[in-house]
Specification:
The protein is of the alpha/beta class. It has helices at residues 15-25, 27-34, 36-40, 53-57, 61-70, 92-107, 121-126, 129-134, 153-164, 167-174, 178-200, 217-229, 242-256, 261-281, 292-295, 321-329; strands spanning 4-9, 46-51, 78-84, 112-119, 143-148, 305-307, 316-318. The protein is built from 16 helices and seven strands. The strands form two sheets. It has a five-stranded parallel beta sheet with strand order 2-3-4-1-5. Strands 6-7 form a two-stranded antiparallel sheet. Helix 6 (92-107) links the parallel strand 3 and strand 4 (112-119).
Length: 330
């Protein structure tokens, strides 16, 4: 999309995927990917930058100065800045606010600048300065607000079929233990038949994802992973809450490494403490650094979190912000 925009939506609806696909397939970025040398000498006089929440968390004046020295933005014809997951920064957002705006103003020295931001709906509502940034008189054009709504069951079924027939999934299943392999292959075969049957039915008598409250790509992936790689199945014909789905998914991870219940509960309690501390910090301007000793006791569930690479802090975020919601509730 050749425009500035703010894309909003609930957790797991595909905001980050949408933003990243825009970054990958934007005409300028495609050219730079095919001809990286030209990108290095700014042959097109364009510059694009994609920052995830963890990269924004590590943004500082030194990094901005490095960008300023390496690129002469006054000679640029076009710059594009992608900011993903601003709602995942917690209290760090207030700290990074001025740095983000400084970076935006730096890139706006070009003839045309596009700012593309993805965040949750409630966060965008609370931070109206987005509107002030986008409506700056120096912009060549205005901005658009796009909202990703909940996904319909038919679309999710199409995604599920693509995932279940993907070659990489088959390889992943073959790398599991014999017990999990047999279970995963059997469940995959049965569920594919169920989906195929629904595609040919006129009145759709087979259960759909509407029944079990799965309405986003993220929840769909949790559902598929849990059913493929755990001993228990989630019945698509019965209601299941998001909390229950996350609970089963996290249990699935523990089963994959044979962790006992006591160890699992201990790690979940630690992550719950961290999540609650992160949640409280997002409501206040002060920063309390995460106790590194807590993280050292989280072995099995470490894949659910990502830690700041900034050595001066010990900030962490969850691999997806929805896990913060789960552990705060836990």
């Amino acid at each position: 999309l050749n425009e500035s925009y703010l894309i909003i939506g609930e957790s797991g609806c595909g905001k980050s995927t949408f933003l990243y696909q825009d970054y990958i397939y934007h005409p300028f970025n495609l050219f730079n990917k095919i001809f990286p040398y030209f990108h290095a000498i700014n042959w097109l006089s364009t510059f694009s930058l994609f920052l995830s929440s963890s990269q924004i968390m590590n943004l500082d004046s030194e990094k901005i100065n490095r960008i300023r020295k390496n690129y002469s933005f006054m000679r640029m014809k076009h710059t594009i800045l992608y900011l993903d997951g601003l709602d995942e920064l917690g209290s760090q957002f207030e700290v990074k606010r001025n740095l983000i705006i400084e970076l935006i103003h730096l890139m706006k020295n070009a003839n045309k600048c596009e700012i593309k931001i993805a965040c949750r709906r409630n966060f965008a509502d609370r931070n109206n300065y987005f509107k002030d940034i986008f409506e700056d008189e120096n912009f060549a054009s205005g901005y658009q607000v796009y909202e990703i709504d909940y996904w319909d069951s038919d679309t999710l079924e199409d995604i599920a079929m693509k995932v279940l027939t993907n070659k990489k999934l088959k390889e992943t299943i073959n790398n599991q233990s014999n017990e999990i392999q047999q279970k995963a292959k059997k469940w995959r075969s049965v569920f594919l038949k169920t989906l195929s049957k629904r595609k040919t039915e006129v009145f759709k008598t087979e259960p759909s994802f509407d029944k079990c409250l799965i309405n986003s790509p993220l929840l769909l992936m949790l559902f598929l992973y849990t059913n493929l790689f755990t001993k228990d199945d989630i019945d698509i014909s019965k209601n299941i809450s998001k909390y229950e789905l996350y609970e089963k998914f996290i249990t699935a991870i523990s089963e994959s490494v044979n962790v006992n219940t006591n160890k699992l509960n201990e790690e979940k309690r630690i992550l719950a403490e961290i999540a609650f501390e992160h949640f409280i910090k997002s409501k206040t301007p002060r920063i309390n650094f995460i106790n590194e000793s807590k993280l050292s006791r989280v072995d099995m569930l470490r894949k659910l979190i990502k830690k700041s690479i900034d050595k001066e802090s010990c900030e962490i975020s969850f691999i997806h912000y929805s896990f913060l919601d789960y552990f705060v509730a836990y």
